[in-house]
Amino acid sequence: MNRRTVAALALTVTAGMALTACGGTKPAPGSGSRAPADAFDPVKVGDGDTTKGGNVNVLMSTDFQTLDPGNSNYVQTANVGQLYYRTLTMAKEEAGKPPKVVPDLATDLGKVSKDGLTWTYTLKKGLKFEDGRPITAKDVKYGVERTYARDVYTQAPQELNAALSDDGYKGPYAKGAAGDFKGIETPDDHTVVFKLKQPFAEFPALVSRSNTAPVPRAKDTKLDYTNHPVSTGPYKIESYQRGRAMKLVRNKHWDPATDPNRSALPETFTFSLSTAQSTISQQLLADSDPTAITLDSAGGLQASDAAKLDQPSIARRTASGIIGCTDVLDFNTETIKDPVVRKALALAIDRKAIQLQYGGARFGKLTQSYINPQQRGYVQQHTALDPTGQPKLDEAKKLLKGRSYPKKLVYGYADATPRYKNMGTSLQENLRQLGIDLELRPIPAANYFTTLAGKGMPDLARSGWCGGADSGSVRTTIDPNLGPSVDGKTFGFSNIPRYHDPEISKAMYALRGENGTSEELGRKWSKLFDRAMQDYPLVPLIRNVTRSVVGSDIRGAQVGYFFGGIDLSTVAVASGSGSGSSGSVARKG
């Protein structure tokens, strides 16, 4: 799941969004003026600065779910991961726009066979691991092979695996598995050949996923690999204290000549991994550390701090933009089995109140669907939800009349983010009016999505899905979130509601193997999604807008459309900041 605190390949930006000034974005105005609260043009801070050196201090309320590229479906890991690992292709960010798929370790976006069942990639020359050993095609293959060990890597991305011809492969640790994987061939050290079950037009986007980050077999420590994944990017991990701090330093074996996608300007990155969000918000607003940024959602800002963004000294340090992340409320369809009951719950929810918990219109737009009209193949979606977010209590009560439904439910929330708890308080009041007692259950943020994907999934839980490579395809939102498993027999890995309708899920599984244009196939996916949504497995909430305040010495700060936070690959530090400089940020258009 390319999840909020976490990662996949979805959602496009509104076609009519006005993009102006530097590189199609609007630089933060030096006067401190601010666009209206409901204007979502992207704003960069310190655009154009190419200063090399200094340290970026990243403030975070919780540790990363994982740093292992083979066990990650999380956008925060993908964001920091682009500093220490590389993949065959890369989803290159541009503020306010869906990312563009570009070559990374590979020389191009791949060569496809006439039947669409084979994709071939050639590795660039001069690629090395942090220990100086050359990166080979077998290292890329092994990185993918690891992700098939689902008994070990419970959060491994599965979209690429679902596309490959695997013959039931269970990963390199399974008994007798050595050499068994037929989905990838490596005829020489520089060639990687993927064998597909059926054609997949967006395949170059799939190999931008962290699955294809090379892993040296001799250094694979299974679950302990998260403590020090072997670097192929411009930085490597010097120290890592789980739940406390991490430091990245330059990888001397990274060759910038092979990597036009990463500026790698800062000398180091330090991460504080246990700073309360209220403290993050206070420190960034006060500019107490001029080199500080955060990766926390919504820039770590508290709803009570939103008005401070109007202050000129803060407005000119605020990077912002609408992002490809949508938040939803998931219903556990295994515990709330009746779709009519789920619909009643959905109609009772005050989505406008939830929007206020996000900071109001400045931080998110109410949405009626996970997919939107700008995605390829979109067809009109239908729900009974009020488009203004108001609850429909009378209608909800009518639906429940005479039906059996649970009188006690549990809402789970990530404990590091106050607005998710506050959202639960709002839900509590909504469901109380239906005679339902809602328990609020905190879940440690570092384990949140692992819990949702496992046996600890509560009755209700918030999640999010962020746009990544090939964001225009509706399939890359629909299939992961409501689609079936790789074999079609149950719900899919990222399908948090555990939704599996015999007829609809069977049709989705069959659709994976159909040929056609992305537009043609998209219409079929959209119609199936619309049918599934009549069962109300989830409730669309907020299309997110991030406004992230940065320290006054930070340059090149942009909000990543996919990452939902400051893009670490573009940031720099002002000259002299290492000696304590904290002057105002110069704007370059």
List the helices and strands and how they pair.
Elements: E1 26-27, E2 43-44, E3 55-59, H1 75-84, E4 89-94, E5 97-103, E6 111-112, E7 118-122, H2 137-146, H3 159-163, E8 184-188, E9 191-195, H4 203-206, E10 235-241, E11 245-250, E12 268-272, H5 277-286, E13 292-294, H6 312-315, E14 318-331, H7 339-348, H8 351-357, E15 364-366, H9 393-400, E16 408-414, H10 418-432, E17 437-443, H11 448-453, E18 460-466, H12 475-482, H13 502-511, H14 518-533, E19 538-549, E20 554-555, E21 572-573
Parallel strand pairs: 1-2, 3-12, 3-13, 16-17, 16-18
Antiparallel strand pairs: 4-5, 6-7, 7-9, 8-9, 10-11, 11-12, 14-18, 14-19, 15-19, 20-21
Feature tags:
589 residues, alpha/beta, signal, D-Maltodextrin-Binding Protein, domain 2, Dipeptide-binding Protein, domain 3, 19% strand, five-stranded mixed sheet, disordered C terminus, Peptide/Ni-bd
Q: What does this molecule look like?
A:
This protein is 21% helix and 19% strand. With 589 residues, it is of the alpha/beta class. It is globular. The C terminus is likely disordered. It comes from Streptomyces endophyticus. Pfam families: SBP_bac_5 (PF00496).
Structural class by secondary-structure content: alpha/beta
Beta strands, count:
21
Termini separation comes to: 36 Å
Percentage of helical residues?
10-25%
* Weakly predicted, low-confidence segments: 4-25, 27-38, 579-589
Overall outline: globular
- Which fold does the CATH topology of the domain at 323-543 refer to? Dipeptide-binding Protein, domain 3
Count of helix runs: 14
* The top level CATH class name of the domain at 323-543: Alpha Beta
Beta percentage is 15-25%
CATH superfamily of the domain at 323-543: Dipeptide-binding Protein, Domain 3
**Arithmetic mean pLDDT:** 87
Main sheet: strand order: 15-19-14-18-16-17
